[in-house]
Design brief:
This is Auxin efflux carrier component. This protein is flat. 80% of the residues lie in helices and 0% in strands. It contains 5 helices and no strands. It has one domain.
Length: 125
């Protein structure tokens, strides 16, 4: 691939994440409340993210044959990784509950570190 095309694609791909983060910030700034979807929906979204997600990863990892430390690492990685920004972009584009996803992304980033430490302690890694 020619260098100029490769460089142009690299610039566009690097700008995509920044624009998505800017879009999320702008969307949150325009909301009348920080938790625009309601406290119960936000709590449910966080519970699904940090409880159901690791449970599904644990079940599938055990089914695949992971045991011991590898199983624990898989669970912690799933719990530690923050929610992606791309689902918010699609939710906003297609007007499919962007309030819920924006709240989940922002609070997921804030809660990810304490939850990760909790999983480390519980799993004894």
């Amino acid at each position: 691939m020619p260098t100029i095309i490769k460089g142009s694609i690299s610039i566009l791909s690097d700008a995509g994440l920044g624009m998505a983060m800017f879009s999320l910030g702008l969307f949150m700034a325009l909301q009348p409340k920080i938790i625009s979807c309601g406290k119960s929906v936000a709590t449910f979204a966080m519970a699904v993210r940090f409880l159901t997600g690791p449970a599904v990863i644990a079940a599938t990892s055990i089914a695949v044959g992971l045991r011991g430390v590898l199983l624990h690492v898989a669970i912690v990685q799933q719990a530690a990784l923050p929610q992606g920004i791309v689902p918010f972009v699609f939710a906003k584009e297609y007007n499919c509950h962007p309030q819920i996803l924006s709240t989940a992304v922002i609070f997921g980033m804030l809660v990810a570190l304490p939850i990760t430490i909790l999983y480390y302690v519980l799993l004894g890694i």
